[in-house]
Write a structure and sequence with these properties.
heterotrimer; A mainly alpha; B mainly alpha; C mainly alpha; B: mainly alpha; Four Helix Bundle (Hemerythrin (Met), subunit A); about 0% strand; globular; C: mainly alpha; Helix Hairpins; about 70% helix; cell membrane (chain B)
Amino acid sequence: MNTITAAALVPLLPFAAAALILLTGRSAPGFVRPLAVLPTLTAAGLAVLVAVRQGEDHRTLLAATELTPTGDAALPVSLALQLDGYSVPVAVLVAVVASAVQIYSTGYLRDDPRYPSYAALVSLFTAAMLLVVYTDDLMVLLVGWEVMGICSYFLVGHYWETPAARAASLKAFLVTKLGDVPFLIGILALATDTGTFRISAITASLTGDGATPPEHPTLIALLLLAGVAGKSAQVPLHTWLPDAMAGPTPVSALIHAATMVAAGVWLVARLLPVFTASAAALVVLAVLAALTMTGSALAALAQDDVKRVLAYSTIGQLGLMTGALAVADRDAAVFHLLTHGAFKALLFLAAGVLIHAAGTGSLTALARMRDLRYSAPDAFWGLTIGLLALAALPPFAGFFSKEAVVVAAEHAARGAGHGSPVPVAAGWTVLVAAVITALLTACYATRLWLMAFHDPVGARPEPAPRAAPVSPAMSLMLWLLALPALGLGIAYRWLPDWFPDGTPLEPELTTSATATGAALLGILLGYGAWRRRYETDDAADPGPALLGRLFRPAAAGFRLDGLYAALFVRPVGGAARLVRFLDREVVGTYVRGAAGAPGRLGALTRRAQTGNVQTYLSVLAAGALVLAATAVLTTAGG
Amino acid sequence: MNPLLAPAVLTAAPGETREFLSPAGVEIVFVLVGLVTLGAGILCVTSRQLVHAALYLVVALGGLAVHYLLLTAEFIAWVQVLIYLGSVVVLLLFGLMLTRAPIGPSPDADSRNRPVALAVAVLAAATLVTLVADAFRTTWIELDTPHGRSGDIGASLFRHWVLPFELLSVILLAALVGAIVISRKRGPAPAEEEQR
Amino acid sequence: MHLVYPAVLSALLFSTGVYGVLARRNAILVLMSVELMLAAVGLNFVAFDVWLRDTLHSGQVFTLFLIALAAAEIGIGLAIVLLVYRTYGDNAVDRLRALGDRRADGGDAGRGTDPGRDAGDAGDTGDTGEPAAAPAGGAAHEREAAA
């Protein structure tokens, strides 16, 4: 099979599966499971095949067929593929994680009556993300981008019986759309400036010898950044992601690990030359990344729900990736995207098993349960490995990728890259924030692990509830994902050869010592705080002790939602009430008057309709008389 | 008032001088009979006894026949007597009987519309009389040679007006049939009637 | 003879007929008033025909037609009045209001006369309730006659 054909089949297979499931899911529910799993698995296999073929010679493959005229002959929209060192491994990650999620879901949602639509939407979601990864055309990318937005809306609202899910799905949709509007404008502005929608052509025109910078680099970069912030849950549009935990856990795994949130980072990585053309945009990106990292890590430290802790950790890790992009190192960003996809999928799926076993996701409740690690051993090991990777301890995958980011930031801060467009300030911002985040991340990972499982003297009062055994498919997926979470980091040796930029990704001694030291310090802090609480209290939450007065605002996500409510929701609501009042009382009065006046006039005239012939005749005669007299008088007068 | 309404031709015979309202014999008779006719007409529309009203109508129509004679239209006069007095009034009297009209004075002969009717009638009379008197104030009818002799009317009728005349007969036939159809009694079904 | 005499007389007779048509309650009296109006028109026709010395005698011929039409009209009119009287037991034109606009509470839109409701009419004219009794009585009479 031709490599291009195989690559085109990768997004097409899940898409066809989604269409088939939606068409036949109701009438033939028995086919839903194979239809959901097999095409995604095949797509994963094809993605691996494409990766192998492309990895043989590291050549960038471009293929395009014109899709539709746009009214501007110079700006055609084409169905184009770009298979290079970035898109191929990311597609493998997406397809593998999606396959894992699909297989896991067959067990997790075994008894769900809406499983067919769920499976179809997950397939569609996967197809859209694969399209975003492979495409070389900004308009086609936008299509995938928006399809993901609508799929996330449906999937987050899967349990639409609960008001929380309804609110969360609406919020996810609206917040991401809020970013998408400037994003669309940015795409159009970029295409106008560069004269093409093709990503490869845009990047080629911005790099190399004959580089021609766009006319409005900062404006375009900031507009695109709005969409990225919405999709990748960066400050200030991150608020939808923690609420999106109302969806099923596999969906969270899919959204957080490989699709949706990764799309924003992916787009910046793809269009990095556009961003490096504007130093201001890079600084903004760095500040956003730093704020996102530290803020989300603080908030994660205060959350009570396991999934919300993981959601905030996702925001933080995405911040780390944008940080890497802010220092113009997309190799590090994509590397971290890959490892993070692996260990975050593992974390979510393990959390799903844990919640299934314990019957609750609340850390306070989990901290009262005895022997959870024995009643849910898969979850225990999955969470342990995932959290270690998240805390970036060697030799887990997270360590290497995070190290690559920190190294890149350190290089930028030292101004090492000669002729590099990255401002030193951006480098320092990312570096400091990354080190602080390393400490905090290790701290909340420790807190999560200790509160869920650690019970050295058996002091917990309640036994773990007896839950139905976890399906083997779910356990299998946990162990399958644990492998890359453990060992993917070693890929730093080969990835620079594969990635087009070819930046070295090796850890350096100073930075790794600093970051790992910070992480160890965080673990110690977390353990110490937990230990003190554990000896005095059965619900041993070290969060308040660690955060002090910051705990309450952090638990509420620093009250950003309240701020948005005050800034946007309430004025809009007031305006809506005003419009309703105007419509009902002012416009409505005219309408009612317009209807009522003829009605009253009619009631008045119908009184003349007495049925008495003589009255009619009298009026007729009098009228004729008046007419005759008038005629005579006017003729005579004239 | 308006010369347009007064035809200039035949206003007065040449060489003759006539005064306005110069009482000639015919005119005196006309006025006297006219007063009787008008009085009978007014009594006809105001009388509270229904049969009396019909009889006043006879007087009024008879007075009109006299007027036709005075205007030398003898044929029309006799037709008027024959048809109007002879048949129409008889029909009306039959109608009164069939609808069980009371013999004595009936107090509800007039409707509540009376004041309006009076106003309309007076106004109509005022308008018409003003108009007519003003328009024909200097016009005289030459009555020396009779104009409506039966022979002339007959010749004209069957020479120039024969088609409308035949049409009229059809109309009369249609009216006859229509009147019978309308007034035929449609009671309950015959079987039902026999049961009673 | 002065033309004004027949013309004025005709106008006055016509107005009298108008008054009768508008003021009389009994349908037969209304028909009489119509006859009066037609007769007045006939006088006008003849007078002007004689004045104009029309060689075709149009005016007099039209009067003839008029008389014939009046006879036809009175025949049809009386037939209708009889039918109305037989159906509703009344021939007072101002009480035949089946086509009038009833208020929403009116229940008997199918009936022609409305003696009970129009109490004002009866009170005005000193009516002793004879028309109110007429429908039932009239219908009974008809049935008796049929039997």
